[in-house]
Write a structure and sequence with these properties.
The radius of gyration is 22 Å and the shape is globular. The strands form four sheets. It has a seven-stranded mixed beta sheet with strand order 2-16-14-13-10-11-12, with helices on both faces. Strands 5, 6, 7, 8, 9, 17 and 18 form a seven-stranded mixed beta sheet that branches. It contains 15 helices and 18 strands. It has two domains: 5-48 and 219-396, NAD(P)-binding Rossmann-like Domain (Rossmann fold, 3-Layer(aba) Sandwich); 59-218 and 415-444, Quinone Oxidoreductase, Chain A, domain 1 (Alpha-Beta Complex), CATH 3.90.180. The chain is of the alpha/beta class. It binds NADP nicotinamide-adenine-dinucleotide phosphate (NAP).
């Protein structure tokens, strides 16, 4: 999904910096790669047709129909819907009054307001879910700040993933029934007490998971599966560098690497996360020596990486999972072994900390963003890949395959670090935005 801040900010900032001379012949990594969901791979060219610009355009055209699912009731729509009473279908006049977070336009987090509206009964082929928990993602923050090019342009509701109970099903829906516990994905709009969605984006919620755990699963698990398995091609015994390892994505990355029997080095932004990580994972998989607290920018980081590699007795990383980028990109790339893959899926050091973006700071960071020379990559025999899973929202078969792949890894239940009542979504977003959270941040509903 297109969550990563570099790609989001790129769109907004590209106009600002168009007056700045580009370094010709170089690829600005992550920003453009992530935006187009393409990869630059010298070792193995993994960008398939589905990830091409043409495909992106195709999905853009489909988006209105996806968003239309969460329509609200208008009198005409009421009349147009035909009655279909029955145990597993809903009387079309049974619209539900729901609570939903909404803003007239992106720009400021505080513009998001909790309102009520009427949600129509699910149409044919749709399912209505009474939402019990909503998982937060960086995309939510960037959507609110107006820095996310994939988000709706006008009135919007953030939120990509949720868990809840099936409250009603429309005609021709057989895969779920009323009362089923489900987890699901939606292309925005999840900050709501009720949703109408396609069953294609629902999965059964494991019986031993809480709703909060279920809402913490889909986005980050799929993101890390795609990064480590599809692009990173991580194999048993390989060495993987995982940035922001205490966060939601980082936790899944560590879980996947553990199951794949890969060796890991983890980075975090602050000292307090180190003990938390060792306690959670156990020192036999992740010891203190395998955790780097990033500080002092790229130069010191390079030395920190060298020290860790020497402790591990390996000459370089086979794969790097990077959502920090910025000053930390090049030291990482330089620490790849030959044949190594650097997978960029975000750039959290672009995250604005306030209620709205500071454009000067963003422009400065954007000008200084990492760039990489494909010719150099060829002689280095290293790859840089980038993606945004949101552009795969329509690739249901692929998602199915990834979900199955995840299931076969038998991961632990997602780690929920922080829960907030639904009514405190703004507090949750502001806490999330600090980067000090561990595990997943989740909104819970009664
Ligand atoms: N491409 C995709 O499809 C996709 C999908 C999902 C998420 N993402 C990206 O993955 C990253 C992690 O997302 P997540 O949902 O899993 O969140 P998360 O891990 O819970 O938190 C992200 C982490 O980013 C780190 N960070 C570094 N600098 C930061 C800053 N200036 N402000 C805030 N945080 C900062 C923090 O950890 P440390 O300080 O410990 O490093 C923070 O815990 C985000 O960049 C997000 O955009 C991308």
């Amino acid at each position: 999904m297109r969550f990563q801040s570099l790609s989001m900010t790129h769109v907004c900032l590209s106009s600002i910096v168009s007056v700045v001379p580009c370094r010709r012949g170089y690829i600005p990594i992550a920003s453009q790669l992530g935006r187009q969901n393409r990869n630059v791979a010298t070792r193995n060219q993994r960008g398939d047709n589905e990830l091409s610009g043409a495909w992106n355009e195709k999905i853009e055209r489909r988006v209105p129909s996806l968003n239309a699912r969460n329509r609200t009731v208008c009198p005409q729509a009421h009349q147009e819907l035909h009655m279909n009473a029955g145990l597993q279908t809903m009387d079309v006049n049974n619209s539900v009054t729901r609570q939903i977070w909404r803003s007239d336009k992106p720009g400021k987090i505080s513009d998001l307001k909790l309102v009520t509206d009427e949600l129509a009964a699910p149409a044919a082929g749709e399912v209505q879910v009474a939402v019990k928990a909503v998982g937060l993602n960086f995309a939510d923050v960037f959507t609110c700040l107006g820095l996310y090019s994939a988000s709706p342009k006008g009135v919007y509701t953030p939120g990509l993933e949720f868990a809840g109970v099936v409250a009603a099903v429309g005609e021709n829906v057989e895969s779920v029934k009323v009362g089923d516990r489900v987890l699901g994905l939606t292309r925005f709009g999840a900050y709501a007490s009720h949703l109408n969605v396609s069953p294609k984006y629902l999965r059964p919620c494991p019986s031993d998971w809480s709703y909060a755990e279920a809402a913490a699963y889909s986005v980050q698990a799929l993101t890390m599966f795609y990064a480590l398995r599809e692009l990173g091609n991580v194999q048993e015994g390989q060495t993987v560098l995982i940035h922001s390892a205490a966060g939601g994505c980082g936790t899944f990355a560590l879980g996947i690497c553990k199951q794949l029997k890969a060796k890991v080095v983890a980075t975090v932004g602050s000292e307090d996360k180190v003990k938390y990580l060792v306690d959670y994972w156990g020192a036999d998989f992740l010891s203190y020596e395998q955790i780097i607290v990033r500080k002092g920018g790229g130069k010191i980081f390079k030395d920190q990486l060298a020290a860790n590699l020497s402790t591990l007795g390996v000459d370089g990383f086979d794969c790097i999972i990077d959502a920090v980028a910025g000053d930390y990109f090049h030291p990482g790339y330089e620490s790849l072994t030959r044949g190594g893959r650097h997978v960029v899926y975000g750039a959290s050091n672009f995250t604005p900390t306030g209620d709205k973006p500071n454009w000067l700071t963003l422009a400065w960071k954007y000008i200084r963003r990492p760039v990489i020379d494909p010719m150099q990559m060829m002689s280095d025999n290293k790859s840089v890949m980038a993606f945004n899973l949101i552009w795969m929202f329509d690739k249901v078969e692929k998602m199915e395959r990834f979900f199955e792949g995840l299931q076969s890894l038998n991961l632990r239940a997602p780690l929920v670090g922080h829960t907030f009542p639904f009514s405190k979504a703004l507090d949750a977003l502001r806490t999330f935005q600090t980067g000090k959270t561990t595990g997943k941040v989740v909104l819970v509903l009664d």
